[in-house]
Amino acid sequence: MRWYRKLYLGEQAAEAKYKMFGKIRRGRFQMDTYLITVARGPDNLLEIYSANMLKQPYFKKKSVQDQIYVVGLAKGYDEALEVVRRIIDDVYRKTGAFDVCGCLKFGQSLRSKGNA
After folding, report:
1. Which residues lie below 8 Å from residue 77, measured CB to CB, with a gap of 6+?
2. Global pTM value
């Protein structure tokens, strides 16, 4: 799993970010914590995952972990939607388009591989 250096954070997530990072990295249960990632398929811009989904066997595979590019962190689903809106607004304002990977210069290898 790769983390964007200038991670987008929701208001509540910003208050507890170090605690949230620690729990995610140690694989601990996280109540109401969401990761915003670059979409792995070409049909979407971003994806929202509950941090608890990372505990599933599928997400523990190295090949899957290498394809997860986290660009945002939120506490609660509504806050996750706000973070997604903020990312899309920033990308559109900077580029006039919706190329999230190109604008953030992060997760571009997912697009070049064409993985779904």
Report:
1. 32, 34, 48
2. 0.83
| 114: exposed, middle or buried (Cβ count in 10 Å: 0-12, 13-18, 19+) | exposed
Residues sharing a CB contact under 8 Å with residue 105, sequence separation 6 or more, in sequence order: none
Helix (H, G, I), strand (E, B) or coil at 72: strand
Q: Are strands 46-50 and 33-38 parallel, antiparallel or unpaired?
A: antiparallel
Per residue in 16-61, pLDDT (tens digit) is 888 888 888 887 888 899 999 998 877 889 999 998 888 888 877 8
Q: For residue 107, give the nearest of 72, 74, 56 by alpha carbon.
A: 72
Q: How far is 39 from 48, CA to CA, in rounded Å?
A: 9
Q: Retrieve residue 94's tokens.
A: 């900077």
Give the domain ranges of the chain: 2-107
SS3 label, residue 69: strand
List strand residue ranges (DSSP E) for 1-116, in order.
2-9, 33-38, 46-50, 69-75
